[in-house]
Specification:
Number of helices: 15
Strand content: under 5%
Length: about 350
DNA sequence: TAGGCCATCTGGTCCT
DNA sequence: AGGACCAGATGGCCTA
């Protein structure tokens, strides 16, 4: 798996002592270094050694330019002549400037990645299974976000209920089994028969027909669907069709990596919402806005009593029952566990 | 212990 | 020249 040109920790001190400038650089890391960063000094050292191999120590730099034209590969073969301007000698001053540039660039790169991670965190918060303790991985967050948009589009386009089996199936499409468990658990719904490809196995776990098998999952509670999420979903009653939508997931979902139908038909709806400026959105940010579903439920579609937050989460049995003890006879507005059980048998 | 995920460093490339 | 972005490399942490 990982190649280890040098020991992860063992021979490090030897290498470190042979590189005088190394310690200096480590100590010259940004002053605002987080504890996390401090805990990763070994890693920084590793990085330095990596770069050292490429740049060479100061002693090596003096020789570096001389045999430029006759580079010989590890197997003795001649490497092609290096093109472009000849490398200038790395004088001490140049090296110092280079180091300073690198340190600055590293700091920028760190903050850039932090910004990216912050954005990912914000994305996690609006996912239907946000949990502070059970963070979705980056890749799973992106996949779920993609599915979420897709599923909400389907809700708007075809009137499919956000509580339907198909909705969960769409959310879980292509997700890992633990993430699928998380999503299904958060939605208080059972496993999907369609998620066997990547989402996991058949999904019926011993003890409860509605629970996902959850190998390796920590004890509950982990991700949970925020009350507002579910209430908004429950409140949302899109146009109801007599016949199931031809686009319904269970009747033929597009392949996971295939092109999805863009939510063109709903873009107008979304566009109606005045997006706050970055500043405003920061100020007004709420952990679980479920913006689109909320907006739709409160502005475009009739909202049931349970669909309003006024009643509070405890107003619905869904929020009184543990996910793991959800009785089979809980009736949803348009979806029941029995519904699910039959769907698992492929009768829908 | 292998594998997954992550943070960081780094050099290259493109753009201003 | 310098910054943003990217991908590769590396090592740490955690879990099955």
């Amino acid at each position: 798996m990982m190649t280890k040109p040098f020991g992860k920790s063992g021979d490090m001190s030897e290498l470190v002592s042979s590189l005088g400038w190394l310690e200096e650089d480590v100590s010259s890391q940004d002053g605002d270094e987080s504890p996390e960063m401090r805990g990763r000094h070994g890693l920084i050292v590793g990085g330095r050694i990596h770069s050292c191999n490429e740049l060479g120590s100061e002693d090596m730099e003096e020789e570096e330019e001389e045999d430029d034209d006759e580079e010989v590969g590890p197997n003795g073969e001649k490497a092609p002549k290096r093109r472009g301007p000849k490398k200038k000698k790395m004088t001490k001053a140049r090296q110092e400037r280079f180091r300073a540039r690198r340190v600055k660039a590293n700091a920028r790169e760190r903050s850039r990645m932090h910004g990216l991670n912050d954005a990912l965190d914000n994305l996690r918060r609006v996912m239907p299974c946000y949990s502070k303790t059970q963070k979705l991985s980056k890749i799973e967050t992106l996949r779920l976000a993609r599915n979420y948009i897709w599923a909400l589009s389907e809700v708007l386009e075809s009137g499919q209920s956000p509580e339907s089996h198909g909705f969960v199936e769409m959310l879980c499409k292509g997700l890992s089994q633990p993430t699928s468990n998380l999503v299904a658990g958060s939605l208080q719904l059972g496993p999907s028969s369609m998620t066997q490809d990547k989402c996991g196995g058949p999904g019926v776990v011993a003890g409860h027909p509605l629970s996902y098998p959850s190998p390796g999952l920590p004890s509950p509670p982990y991700g949970s669907l925020e009350a507002s999420h579910l209430l908004h979903m429950k409140g949302f009653k899109g146009p109801v069709y007599d016949n199931p939508s031809p686009n319904e997931c269970s009747s033929g979902t597009p392949p996971y990596d295939g092109p999805l139908t863009p939510p063109l038909s709903i873009s107008g709806n979304f566009a109606l919402k005045q997006e706050p400026s970055p500043h405003e959105s920061e100020r007004n940010y709420t952990p679980h806005p479920s913006h689109h579903a909320h907006y739709l439920s409160s502005h475009h579609y009739p909202t049931s009593t349970t669909g309003s937050l006024a009643g509070g989460p405890q107003a619905h049995p869904l929020f009184q029952a543990s996910r793991y003890e959800l009785p089979l006879d809980i009736a949803f507005d348009s979806f029941t566990p029995s519904h699910l059980v039959t769907s698992q048998m492929g009768t829908i």
